[in-house]
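Troubleshooting log. The previous structure file for this entry was overwritten by mistake, so regenerating from the original sequence record. Sequence copied from the archived sheet and checked twice against the printout by T.R.
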Amino acid sequence: MIDRQLLPRIEHLLSQSPAVALLGPRQVGKTTLAQALGARHSPSVMLDLERDSDRAAIAQPELFLPQHRQALVVLDEVQLVPDLFRALRPEIDADRRPGRFLLLGSASGDLLRQSSESLAGRVAYAELTPLLASEVVSDLTSLQALWLRGGYPLSHLASSDEASFEWRQNFVHTFLQQDLPSMGVRVPAETLRRFWVMLAHLQGQLFNASQLAQALGGIAHTTIARYLDTLVDALVVRRLEPHWVNVGKRLVKSPKVYVRDSGLVHALLGLATVRDLQGHPVAGASWEGFVVEQVAAALPAGAQLSFYRTAAGAELDLVVELGTRKFGIEIKFSAAPKPTKGFWQALSDLKIERAWVVAPVERRYPLAPGVEVVPVQALQGLAEQLQSGG
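Regenerated output below.
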């Protein structure tokens, strides 16, 4: 099993809260991680709520749950049984011991809504992402493999690039045909597939609902916004909001949108190998989205992530806010990155404390006072340094 960097945080949350909700897309490794946690917390009991037998076991939660008050109870795909949240509340109130429940969910919108309504003040949240560079990358070759195949464990660990590509194609099909309908999504699978492919082509660009609506046959732009919400809630697309600040300049107001896993970007566009990817127009944007996910996963709880762009050309790929402190991250798909004039202007506009240029390089080096070039796999260390006040 690959050591997941989220494990210590989940352990910490379990030591503080009666319930922890672990969010993450399908096939990202939540169940494997939960099994590892269960082995550390004896006794434990795990129920997969997609199985009829496990749903039958907990059909009477007021009888089942008190029998397991001394165990860590893991409920997988808990959003599929929304009535269960109402039963968890009185059970937690009867025994508020930390570490009683680990709730796994693949639909963040449903799970957050259901749990916040029923378990306010009783549940903590964490998100498991696809595999990160800090978990599996040792050199530029392994970095390239992670970027190409993406971070879904079965895709990353496949025997060949071809096997990985086939797994991802099957994942897309199953996700659209089975997983989303099981979450209550009633949009035709082929419509959502076309929309998802369009987002892959527009990776990292500003979201224009009206433009996409016309491309999909003239449907309402509000329907396009609903499609986006569906994929964001399912944790396969990221909507990155612009940074709002009073700098006396015209700011871009539309969000940027990314397919969150680079391997899925490549599968949606039919790019199976590094040769297919080299020179393709999406390569730079795919790399940008890949790094955005690495940064987001490395940040401590409470950190805010946005991007900055003005009509005059000042631009910063990521603005990280930790309390009152602001840091900048620029993403370059180059072994010798050179930020543009707009980057330096953005640092000045926002009074950025420190900035990093993330690129496919082997070692970090200074670029200017307060600005450093760093490899992707160093992001976790940088986040820990910032959190400690460094």
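The chain has a mean pLDDT of 91. Archived copy saved in two places this time.
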